[in-house]
Amino acid sequence: MSDAVADEPLLGGIDLRTLPKVSLHDHLDGGLRPQTIIELAEPIGLALPASDDAALAAWFAEKSDSGSLVEYLKTFDLTTAVMQTREGLTRVAREFVEDLVADGVVWGEIRWAPEQHLTRGLSLDEAVEAVQLGLDEGVDAADAAGQSIRVGQLISAMRHLDRGREIAELALRHRDRGAVGFDIAGPEAGFPASRFADAFALLAREGFPATVHAGEADGVESIRGALVDGRALRLGHGVRIAEDITIESQDDEMSYVSLGHLAQWVKDRGIALETSPSSNLQTGAIAAWGDDLTAHPFDLLYQLGFRVTVNTDNRLMSATSLSRELGLLVDAFGYDLDDLLTFQLNAAEAAFLPLEDRAELVELIEDGFGNA
Q1: Which of 109, 216, 274, 349 is catalytic?
Q2: How far is the C-alpha of 156 from the C-alpha of 6, rounded, in Å?
Q3: Which one, of 121, 233, 218, 220, lies nearest residue 180 by Cα?
């Protein structure tokens, strides 16, 4: 039974969970069910801060709402601890897909860092294979139930460590066995994409796409590094690109803005921003603009024509789902169904899929929204 968020986000009587959606930024170790953590912790003797699933979920939500990415990341010590065996990784991956299906996701990119899952003897390749097995089981179960979902792995390297080239090679070894892209994650400030220049050069030579966490815990120069040194096709969060936008003047009906060169580049080339509204609030990514969701620069970026997408980042830590995130944006900015469709089409067009598959995904989404 799923521990997924029980909210019922609605828009004009439409249950947002029934709409076809694309998830581009969703961490495997941030999407565990609390009950699964409890069950996996027992045989390895891992002490937990709570013994029932509701209390454990509340603990994660409280500890994650710190206003600091560094503090937020500490909660992952607990989830990664129960993801060190084949069985643990496979179960978590299978349930991850099940929860995406329940949320209406039809294409999901699941990102995770294999190098963090080796303490009980698994090799990097064995870890990737264990996760792929779970993903395949989840997809097969959905198919058997008459539901449709496709998923892919985004293989992440931890930016404060020095295994970038090795993890890039790992991703390439599995490109025809479930891996669809590469990422760097972890503490952003002080660990620029240039640290992994050789890895990104290798991926570019091999024609393998990359997204880079940037513009979350660091600003415009981090985004520039992601694009220049990281060859990023998308920006993980990317919300602080708004620091390169100046509001010249505004009145009750109109705002006049100017874009810096980098913001203009990101906009003009349709580089997708993988925003995660609740997470961005929790980690302080939008602190420069305010301390509630209505202050999020998401709407400014959307109105200016940036390719904004909506994501969960970490469903456990933010006690959320993709449908809930869309509902929060509806409440904050008054969006309608056409706006939500735009966000899904933005994500579909930025997916790490072949062009023909993206076209099919767009058609699937348009049909689903048209029938809502």
Answers
A1: 216
A2: 29
A3: 233
Q: What is the pLDDT of residue 74?
A: 82
Split at pLDDT 50, 70, 90, the class of 254 is confident
Residues 6+ apart with CB under 8 A from 92: 28, 29, 31, 32, 36, 82, 83, 131, 134
Please indicate whether residue 169 is annotated as part of the active site.
no
Domain positions in the chain are 20-354
Q: Tell whether the torsion through CA atoms of 115, 120, 125 and 127 is positive or negative.
A: negative
At the topology level, CATH places domain 20-354 in: TIM Barrel (3.20.20)
Are 296 and 280 spatial neighbours (Cβ–Cβ below 8 Å)? yes
Cα distances from 174 to residues 124, 177, 225, 247, 253, in angstroms, run 11, 5, 26, 45, 51
Question: Is 199 exposed, middle or buried, given 0-12, 13-18 or 19+ CB atoms closer than 10 A?
Answer: buried
Q: The whole model's pTM is what?
A: 0.94
Q: Are strands 308-310 and 272-275 parallel, antiparallel or unpaired?
A: parallel
What is the tens place of the pLDDT at every residue in 186-228? 999 999 999 999 999 999 999 999 999 999 999 999 999 999 9
Distance in angstroms (rounded) separating the CA atoms of residues 183 and 19: 28
CA distance 337 to 370: 10
Two tokens at 314?
């970490």
